Sequence to fold (456 residues):
Amino acid sequence: MKHSLRFRLLLFVLTSFIIGWLTISGFTWWRATAEADALFDEQLFQLATLLAVVTSHEAEEQDLDEFAEDLQINGYSDPPVFQVWSSDGRLLVHGPNAPRKPLSLNLETGYSNVVMRGHQWRVYTRYTSDKQHRIQVAQESASREVRMLGFVVNILSPLLLALPMIGILWWVVVRALNPLDRLVYQIGSRSATNLEAIDTTIAPAEAKVLVDAINDLFQKLQSSIDRYSRFTADASHELRTPLAGSVIQIHAALASSDKIERNHSLNQALKGLSKLHRLVEQLLVFSRMEPEVAMLEFAPLDLKELSVEVVSDCAPGYLERDVTLELEAPHPVKLMGNWELLAIALRNLLDNAVRVTPAGGVIKVSLLADDDFVSLAVIDAGPGISDQNKALVFGRFHRLLGTTGQGSGLGLSIVHSAVRLHGGTVILEDGENGKGLQVVIKIPIRRSYPSQVVKL
Fold:
């Protein structure tokens, strides 16, 4: 299950806060209890030291009840439990709550824990400076823990005040993500045709990169839609003319009682339908080479072998028009490419060339290669193209005045797209001796291509 950015951010912030709070509280508890325990041990030490001083002077004459009252006044809330033993093991003096047995069997100076009267006690043992008396003082562990708990709670109280910060953090995170909500609303409320750039001023800095990427995508989509709109409009126009003409000729044939006139109309309709058939085929080829939908398999191929195959297929039909094809490809040329696309490109160049080449003319195909590029040139014997028109012929459905045949105006546009998908370029130059047109396909020779090319 995927959670929203708000949920994940709140979870991260609150989890971090709670873990930090628990860590600080736990550490503070541990330190406070250790300090309190050390403080209570220090009280035992101070009491034992005081008793040692008193005992050294006049232990047997000391008023113990008055001494206990003095201890309470000076911060000892519990009646002191203490004993003073002589070096021969006699109990000389003791507190009112002290037993007559030693508080601890540990006779060495230091602290010990004992069980007395069914309760845990903390005992400190020490000797007077002359080693003639042993003093033991004790505190009940339960009493120590109660006072220790109060001490620790007082220290932790400020940390409890930090718990309302959870609500404040929640509010801050929600407030900080409001610009994203506005951004989502602005995008979600758009119509399907609204591809205007998103206002980046409403997006936080962290989201600006995403907004810029979406705007770039909108721009590409708009360009693609515009391109398809122009293509559809041009295609509709180009399809409408031969289709309408064929329909008219068929109606004329049906309405005519004269056989010759009827056959003429049917022949004209057949020519129109043939043009329409070729135009549809060209449109299908062209749509497959649109950069947005091109998914092409590249493999090693020999461009000489491809050229020989295409020229051999086209030559018989061109001979009927009294046009000769000549191929100059002395050596095999290996490269990575798509056989079908390159064959379509060469075939379209030859079809364009044969339309402008007069009867008895020659179309030359030459193939050259170096270490980096391969060049495939098609040279016709037609009237050529002016420099001004050279920049226009790659447009869809563009035809030059004076051309013959049933051209669709897509040939060079198809060639340009096929070569572009191979990373190459198409160059238009004047033919030999300034006559005709030389179209040069220049493709880089690459040792490898991606198995699929998707070029946006």
Remarks:
- Residues 5-58 form the longest helix (54 residues).
- The chain has three domains: 5-160, 200-288, 299-444.
